[in-house]
Design goal:
Blueprint lengths: L14 E4 L2 E4 H23 L5 H25 L2 H4 L18 H19 L3 H19 L1 H6 L13 E2 L16 E2 L2 H23 L5 H20 L6 E4 L2 E4 H23 L19 H26 L18 H7 L40 H13 L2
Antiparallel strand pairs: 1-2, 3-4, 5-6
Helix pairs in contact: 1-2, 1-5, 2-4, 5-7, 5-8, 7-8, 8-9
C-alpha cells in the first residue's frame, strides 16, 4: 500500500543536547556521509594499488576545504539571507542550519585534495577516480539532513509520496494552504545518487575507468539529475535569464558542468585509448620495497631451486626417497624396510640384481656384476665385502 504522504520529522528532532553541546541531525547526516565515503574510497584506493592510509591523509585537507567551499557557494548564491535588508551575517558560519553548495564543496575540496595528494606523493586524477563513487554516496546520505530541517523541498504536488511540511515551520510557503504536500526533492536526489553509485561501480568494474574519467563521469551523472531536481525546488535562489529563459542559478550551473564533464570524459577516453593504466603515485614517489621484502624475495628463489634439485635427485635414484643418488642404502637400515623397498642394480648386459637374503645382512653392488652374491654363500668373505664398494666407486 502506497502511503498518502511522507511525513516530516517533528521540529524537535532537528537537534538534541548533550550537556552544553547541541547536536544537529543535519550535521550528523553530513558527517555520516563523509565517513562512509572515506571507507568506500579507502577500499577502492587499495584496489588501485595504493596505500589505504593515504586516503585519510588526503581527507584531512579535502574535507575542511570542501565544507568551507560548500558554505561559501551557498552564501554567495543565496545572499539575501546574509546580505539583504533583513540579512544576518552571523548566520554565515551556522552550517548546521543548512546550506552547502555542492559546486563550492567540489571546487574547494579539490584544492584541498590536491594539497593532500602532493604531500602524499599520489596523482590527483587517480585519487579523484577512487573517490568519485564515495562522494556521490556521501551526497545521498547528506540529503537526509534536509528532511530533518524541513527544507529544500519542491513545488506543491498531489502525488501519493508528497512531503508534509509543518504549517508553522519557518520554511513553509506563506501562500500555501496548511496540509499542502510538496515534492520531496531531497528523496529524489538521494535515490538518484544511490542509483548512480551502483552504476559507477559497475562501469568501473567493466571498463576500468582511470585517468580522471571516473570523476568526470560522476560529474556528468550527478548534474544530469540535478538539472530536473533543482527545477522542482521553490526555495529562495538567484534567478538568471539566458536566451530569454529564466532559471535558478544552480540549474544553469548544472547544465554548464554537465556539458563540460561530457566533453572532458570523451576527450580523456580518446586520449587514453590503447594506453596502459599508470601508477597512482607521482614519478619518483612510489614506496620503495623494504629490506625485509627484498630478503624475502631473494630467499624464495633458492628455496624453490633447492626443492627442484631435491626432486631431481630423488627421481634419478629410482624415485626411492630412501636411496642416495648412487643407489646405495645407508648402512644400518632396518632390514624389514630394505625388504620392502628392494634394491635394483644392472650389469653390463642389463641383468637385474635381486635383493640379498636379509637373514644374513644386505649388500648392494653397483659394478658390472653378473650374479647376485648371497651373504651366506662361500664367496661372501669379509675381505670381498669390504672391497666391493671401492670397486664400484672406481668405475663411476
Amino acid at each position: 500500500m502506497i502511503p498518502a504522504s511522507i511525513p516530516s520529522p517533528p521540529a524537535e528532532w532537528a537537534s538534541f543536547t548533550i550537556g552544553p553541546a547541541t547536536i544537529h541531525l543535519y550535521a550528523l547526516c553530513i558527517l555520516a556521509g563523509i565517513v562512509v565515503a572515506l571507507l568506500l574510497t579507502s577500499a577502492r584506493w587499495k584496489r588501485f594499488g595504493g596505500n589505504p592510509d593515504v586516503v585519510w591523509d588526503v581527507a584531512i585537507w579535502a574535507v575542511p576545504f570542501g565544507l568551507i567551499g560548500g558554505r561559501l557557494y551557498h552564501v554567495f548564491s543565496s545572499p539575501d539571507a546574509y546580505f539583504g535588508p533583513d540579512g544576518d551575517l552571523s548566520r554565515i558560519p551556522r552550517i548546521w542550519e543548512g546550506g552547502l553548495g555542492i559546486w563550492g564543496a567540489v571546487a574547494l575540496g579539490a584544492v584541498g585534495a590536491w594539497i593532500g595528494c602532493r604531500r602524499a606523493g599520489v596523482r590527483l586524477s587517480a585519487f579523484a577516480d577512487a573517490a568519485a563513487p564515495g562522494v556521490l554516496l556521501a551526497q545521498a546520505i547528506g540529503r537526509w539532513g534536509n528532511w530533518f530541517n524541513q527544507e529544500l523541498f519542491g513545488a506543491p504536488t498531489e502525488l501519493p509520496w508528497g512531503l508534509e511540511i509543518d504549517a508553522d515551520h519557518p520554511n513553509f510557503p506563506p501562500e500555501a494552504d496548511p496540509g499542502t504536500l510538496f515534492h520531496p526533492t531531497f528523496l529524489y536526489e538521494s535515490l538518484w545518487n544511490l542509483v548512480g553509485v551502483a552504476l559507477l561501480l559497475l562501469l568501473d568494474r567493466r571498463f576500468g575507468l582511470r585517468g580522471g574519467r571516473m570523476f568526470w563521469l560522476y560529474a556528468a551523472y550527478y548534474t544530469a539529475g540535478r538539472v530536473w531536481i533543482e527545477a522542482l525546488r521553490i526555495d529562495d535562489a538567484e534567478l538568471i535569464t539566458i536566451f530569454g529563459l529564466t532559471q535558478r542559478l544552480n540549474v544553469w550551473t548544472s547544465i554548464l558542468v554537465l556539458v563540460a564533464a561530457l566533453v572532458i570524459f570523451v576527450y580523456l577516453t580518446m586520449k587514453q585509448r590503447g594506453t596502459d593504466q599508470t601508477s597512482v603515485y607521482l614519478p619518483g614517489r612510489a614506496p620503495k620495497p623494504t629490506e625485509g621484502d627484498a630478503a624475502g624475495g631473494a630467499s624464495a628463489a633458492p628455496s624453490s631451486s633447492s626443492e627442484e634439485g631435491i626432486a631431481g635427485s630423488t627421481g634419478s635414484a629410482g624415485k626411492n626417497p630412501d636411496k642416495h643418488a648412487d643407489g646405495e642404502i645407508p648402512a644400518g637400515e632396518d632390514s624389514a624396510k630394505a625388504e620392502t623397498i628392494g634394491v635394483e642394480g644392472r650389469n653390463g648386459t642389463g641383468t637385474e640384481v635381486q635383493p640379498s637374503d636379509t637373514s644374513a645382512g644386505m649388500r648392494t653392488d653397483h659394478g658390472n656384476l653378473s650374479e647376485t652374491k648371497d651373504a651366506s654363500g662361500p664367496s661372501a668373505s669379509p675381505d670381498a665385502a669390504a672391497e666391493e664398494p671401492r670397486e664400484s666407486d672406481s668405475r663411476k
